[in-house]
Structures are given as structure tokens and as C-alpha cells.
Design a protein that fits this description.
2 copies of one chain form a homodimer. Chain A is of the alpha/beta class. Helices cover about 35% and strands about 20% of the residues of chain A. Chain A contains 11 helices and 11 strands. Chain A is globular. At the A-B interface, helix 6, helix 7 and helix 8 of A face helix 6, helix 7 and helix 8 of B.
């Protein structure tokens, strides 16, 4: 029995679901969460999505979801690579997850049933394949949710994780009549004026190291407060450093609290970002990973530069 | 008989081809040109591609093309909406085109056989469908060429012209084992350091009008020379103004020669960019079009602002 069949059987044989998404939610975890919630409700079950927060650009995913009053019995995590990534929900849910659906290479959520497919570019791809096994009928709103995950986790089909399977799934979703271009415009092509000013400032602080094979940018709390930039407006910054010609590994440092930095790492094919982050207790994908470092901005930069010189 | 069958029959029954691409060549015209050249050579015919120039990022498209010595007999244009868009090749080739393969809404090249399909997101989509009718075998290098057109003309499947047909064609091309992510990185995600400095300067000159529903940026000859930025490094700038939240029409002004500006227009769905450009003798697609205006930078901006106030 395939993992997907096992997941479908689990979902059909339980009820009263809480679906967990990861902290700092993105299009794939939220698209997965609301798609699964809609699918379960379509089958007459009770379900709700549990987020740490819901950025305003993703509110459209909640359309069609019914607010149901029930006592939770079954916990499912979607696109969550480790319980620690549940953020403020970790304490309440750790150890209680019954089904983990995930696509990360390193996937560590303990659960009696695990459906993990790292060949899927997005978690939504996996759900697209589980739903028919459950007898779920694809609807336009399900397609909206799944497309959001499929598109955002591949950089709109730009990155190396995109396969012909990804593109054929996206084609089937487009056939449901969704406004894919509208979704993509919000996800990839919309910048607020404040964000433009922030980018200007970020570029001014752009630093190179390792013979320009590494570049790094930083967003401090001060910059964010001064320009009034919301957290969800920081999406997309992580890809800036690696876009520079010749750069093989790029860091985006984001100050989460005073002297604590979240580091987003993006690399070209010959540098493993997940391995790089592992030395600092982080993880992720081969070309996109993350970790956390404490210290002043200059200290954190120095730590990263030293580590890069080991790798490059 | 469909247009595509007519095009296939034409291509099978002639020989000694010159394939014309449009001036300021992009991924779709060049991808189409080299794909068609490879296809014809695969069938034992003579063919070459005629460009005004070949930006270095596109040189990989020429791989596998044999340099053949022959006297041209048959002229085919690919992705050329009007003879005036042949640039420096217009004089030599106008009135001599035997087959026009194009996907523009307004397509005006006079030719005895015309295969024009405006429902195709890219010209390469059309060729993908013509090749089987000619008995051409899809190869990896053909797939490289076709993918480049399919991807670049849809903004990597991001824009509203992308259909499920587009995505299924892209899936078939990926199945040929091409390095799609590598192509996309060059086409969409690589910036030189000079280009980053140029963008900085462009953002400083960003102007809004019509209650911030219109934004415009400009690249002058002075800026380009001072920063040493090549023409082909200016690709992608056209999408900047419309990316700003609330902007419905965006202009990118590029000074081609002193006081002569090429205007790239990008619009949201409720404003027709092609119609807007038509009043200045230009044209293009509903959401992406272009025209040319003469005058000082300030004069050209004033002309555009006045025209925008008529439309918005």
C-alpha cells in the first residue's frame, strides 16, 4: 500500500480534524491546510485549520471553508518538517499528530501514519494525488488552494524542483477555471511602496564575500519599524542575493528579535544549503534552507562568512 | 486544412530557408528561430536564422545548428508581428516572406501562407504543434529552444496568457531532460552588479501619476553609459512599474537615441496596453505592448501622463 493510499485511508476513517500548518506560513502550507479542510468538509467531516497567523494575501484561501463547532480528535500536519516549526502551536500539539503529510527531504514529525514524498515539488502536489483516492471531487476553490502551493513552492515553476508532474498537475488545476495569473500577481509581482523603499535600503547594505561567490543582505528590526513594513511584506527577499551573477550562496538575515537573526539560505546546485544550515541546527532543501543565529548583525555576518569560506 | 497543417506542408515542400526573427530579439523569437532551423536541418533541408543581434544569454540556443552554405530561396518569419519589427533586416526582406508563423493578436506580416494563432501564449507553442505534422522528432536541443520561448513569453508561466495547453507542452519539454531551471535562472533570476546599481538609480527616478494608478521609470542613455550597462541587461525592467501595489498601467521609458524613447507598457486586465500604444503607432498584447515617442524625457513623460488621464 502506497503512503498516499495509507493517508487516504486514515483521512477517510477518522473525523473531527485539526490541520496544522507551519509557523511563518507560506503558500504551500496554507494551500495544503485549506485544501485538506475543504476536502474533508466535502466528505461530511468536521475540520479546521490551525495557523500561527494568516497573512492578508492568503485570506482568499479560506473561501468556502465552513466554521464548524466540534471537539478536535484527529491532528494532521501539512508541510511541517519538524514539530519545532509549529511555532506557538508546538506546545499544544507536539506528540499528538496522527498523520503527517510532507514533502521535505528531511522530515521529522513523529506520527503513526506518515505520507512523505520528497520528489513532490510542493506538499500540494501530494494532496492533489491523495484526494482522488478519497473520492474527493476537485472544485475550483480546491484548485485555487492547491495551485497556490504548487506555484509558490516552485517560484512559479522556475526552480529545479519543478517536474513534468508538477506542470501537468498545474495544467489540471488551470482547467478548473481558476485565475492563476491573479494568484501569481499577488504572490510574485506585487510590491508595496514601502517594500520598494525597504529594498532600496537593503541593496545599500548588500555585502559580498568569498570572491563575490557569496552575497548577503539584512533586514533589521530598526529598518522594518522605521519604514513600517509588515512581516508578510518581507516575502521574496530571500531570493535577492543569489540572483546576482556569480553568486553561489546567498544569505538573507532577518532580525526577529534584538540580536536574533533568522537566516534564509539560497544556493546554486553545487552548494547544499540544507547541509550548510545543519551545522547551525537548521535545515530545509538542497537549494533553499534556513537557520537561526544570535549576536549583533556584524557578529552574525562574521559567523556566516567564516562558514562560507569552509564550504566554497 | 488547419493553419498548422498548411504551415507544415509549406515547410515540407520548400528548401533553402532563411528564418527571420524580430529586432530586439527575445526568447520566443530566438527560440522559435533556432527550433525551426534545427527541425528543417533534421529533415535534410538547408536553413539558417537571421537576427539583428544575438544577446549572449541566448547563444546556447544555437547549439547543434549546422552552418550551411546555400543560396536562400524561402523566407519564413517567426514571432514577427509586422515587417517594420525586422529592424535592420526590414529593407532586405520586406515583401519576400513566404510563410509567417506568429501568435500576436495584431499580426500584419504579408505572406502567401500565414499560420497565426493568438491563443498560443508563445510562438514556440505553435511550433511545438507544427513539428509532429512535419514528422520532426523532438530532441533535447529542440526542447531547449522551445522551452525558452514558452517560458520567457509567459513570465515563467506567471502571466494570464498561460493556459493548461502551455503547461502540458512545458511538461512534455521537461520530459526531454532539459535543464529548465538553468534556463530560467539565466532568463529571470540573474542580475549583474551593474544592473543592480542601475535599478537603484531607476527606483530613485520612479514617478507616479493618476492617483498612483500609473507609475513610470526611465533609463536614459546617460545612465546606461555611466554605469556601463549593456542593452541586453535592460531586460525585465519593463515589469517593475506595474508590480507596485495599486498600479494599473506602468511605463518603462528607454532612451534609444538622444530624445527618442521606446516605451514599454504593462497593464492590469482592465486597461488595454495594445490600444493605449496604438494611438502612438505602437502595438502588442492586451497587457504588454510598446510604442515610441520623441522629445526630452520630461516632454515624453508629460505626453504619457496626459494620455493616461484620458484612459484611467
Amino acid at each position: 500500500m502506497s503512503d498516499k493510499q495509507a493517508a487516504a485511508d486514515f483521512l477517510l476513517s477518522h473525523d473531527n480534524y485539526e490541520i496544522l500548518t507551519h509557523a511563518y506560513p507560506d503558500g504551500d502550507t496554507l494551500g495544503s491546510g485549506y485544501a485538506l479542510c475543504l476536502a474533508l468538509q466535502q466528505l461530511g467531516k468536521n475540520a479546521r485549520v490551525i495557523n500561527t497567523n494568516l497573512p492578508k494575501d492568503f485570506v482568499f484561501l479560506t473561501e468556502g471553508v465552513t466554521d464548524q463547532d466540534f471537539e478536535a480528535e484527529t491532528i494532521v500536519s501539512v508541510d511541517v518538517a519538524a514539530e519545532s516549526l509549529l511555532g506557538s502551536n508546538e506546545k499544544a500539539y507536539a506528540g499528538r499528530i496522527g498523520l503527517c503529510i510532507d514533502h521535505h527531504q528531511i522530515s521529522r514529525v513523529p506520527a503513526p501514519v506518515r505520507c512523505v514524498d520528497p520528489t513532490a515539488a510542493s506538499n500540494c502536489e501530494i494532496l492533489f494525488e491523495i484526494f482522488p483516492l478519497m473520492g474527493v471531487k476537485l472544485t475550483k476553490q480546491l484548485a485555487n488552494c492547491l495551485y497556490t502551493g504548487v506555484s509558490t513552492d516552485t517560484g512559479c515553476f522556475k526552480y529545479g524542483n519543478t517536474t513534468s508532474r508538477t506542470l501537468r498537475i498545474a495544467a489540471d488545476l488551470l482547467d478548473m477555471g481558476i485565475d492563476a495569473a491573479g494568484i501569481n500577481k499577488v504572490m510574485f509581482d506585487t510590491k508595496t511602496k514601502k517594500k520598494i523603499r525597504l529594498e532600496q535600503e537593503i541593496y545599500q547594505g548588500l555585502e559580498y564575500c568569498a570572491d563575490d561567490r557569496c552575497a548577503m543582505i539584512a533586514v533589521t528590526i530598526d529598518m522594518q519599524q522605521r519604514l513600517g513594513v509588515r512581516d508578510d511584506e518581507l516575502e521574496g527577499l530571500a531570493s535577492i542575493p543569489r540572483q546576482i551573477e556569480g553568486v553561489e550562496i546567498g544569505f538573507t538575515l532577518r532580525e526577529k528579535e534584538k540580536n536574533v537573526f533568522k537566516i534564509s539560505v539560497r544556493s546554486s546546485r553545487n552548494v547544499n544549503a540544507a547541509q550548510f544550515c545543519a551545522q547551525f541546527g537548521g535545515g530545509g532543501h538542497a537549494e533553499a534552507a534556513g537557520c537561526q543565529l544570535s549576536g549583533t548583525l556584524e557578529e552574525v555576518k562574521a559567523t556566516l562568512k567564516a562558514a562560507v569560506n569552509e564550504v566554497l
